[in-house]
Amino acid sequence: QEQLVESGGGLVQPGGSLRLSCAASGSISSFNAMGWYRQAPGKQRELVAVISSGGSTDYNDSVKGRFTISRDNAKNTVYLQMNRLGPDDTAVYYCNAHKYVFGVRYDYWGQGTQATVSS
Question: Which among 11, 8, 45, 7 is positioned nearest to 118, based on CA atoms?
C-alpha cells in the first residue's frame, strides 16, 4: 500500500511563501501522475497542480504564475512551491498520486497539511 506524507504547511502572512513536500513510501516513478489538491472550509476539494511521470505540469488558473510543482525521483518526493500567497489560498492541501493497473485507476492520498494565510 502506497503512503504519501505531506509536510510544510503553516501560517504565513499575505504575500509570503510556503513550500509543501509530499514524500512517497515507494518509487514515485510508478505513478502516472502526482498532484496537489486543496480544500477550503465549506468548499469542494479542487485540483491545484499536477505533474506527470514525464514531467509535464498543469495548474489551476487561480495559482498560475504563483505556484510551481516539481518532483525529485531520487527522493521520491513532490513539491509545491507557493509564492505570493493570499487569504484565498488558505486550505488543507492534499497530495495525490495515481496509477493504472490493468486499466483500473488507483488513487492514493496523503493526510493533508494546513496552510493558513493571514496577517
Answer: 11
Q: Please name every residue paired with 82 in a beta bridge, in sequence order, or none if there are none.
A: 18, 67
Summarize pLDDT for 21-41 with one digit per residue, the tens: 999 998 888 899 999 999 999
Cell numbers at residue 37, please?
A: 489538491
Secondary structure string (H, E, C) spanning 49-92: EEEECCCCEEECHHHCCCEEEEEECCCCEEEEEECCCCHHHCEE
What digits encode the pLDDT tens for the residues 51-99? 999 999 999 999 999 999 999 999 999 999 999 999 999 999 999 999 9
Are 96 and 109 in contact, with CB atoms under 8 Å apart? yes
Long-range contacts of 99-107 (CB under 8 A, 24+ apart): 99/30, 99/31, 99/32, 100/32
Closest CA to 7 of 22, 17, 18: 22
The helix/strand/coil state of 17 is: coil
Dihedral sign of CA atoms 94, 5, 1, 59 in order:
positive
